[in-house]
Structures are given as structure tokens and as C-alpha cells.
Amino acid sequence: MALDKVNEKEVFKATDLMNNRPRKCLGYKTPFEVFAELTGKDYFFKLKCYTYRLNSLPLNYANTTVSHV
Known about the structure:
Largest sheet: none
Number of strands: 0
Number of domains: 1
Order of helices and strands: HHHH
Radius of gyration: 13 Å
């Protein structure tokens, strides 16, 4: 599949699948869980809510929201 044929929703879905897969090297935690523990921030979970449930919002809305958390 050519990258110019992939839409934003497909990219977010693939990213979500990879970042929610537990990893042996992370003690069977997901990258999202480890990031939240290390930074004390869980805004990736909030971002996921915006990008998947409110599909009418533009991508930059989610990025703006994340930068102000």
C-alpha cells in the first residue's frame, strides 16, 4: 500500500494498535502506560478520545488540546 493512499484515520488506528500492545521489554505494559507513568500525564488517552469518537474535529484541534494539558 502506498503511503499517499493512507488516510489519517488509518494512521491513528495503526498507531493505537501498536501503542496499546503490551511489550515484554516494558514489563508487559503498553507504551501508553509507561509514558503516563514516567511523565505523570495521561493526555494520550484524552487524545485518543478526540480522534476516534469525534471524527468531525480537525486533526489540529487534538494537537492544540494536547499542548495545553
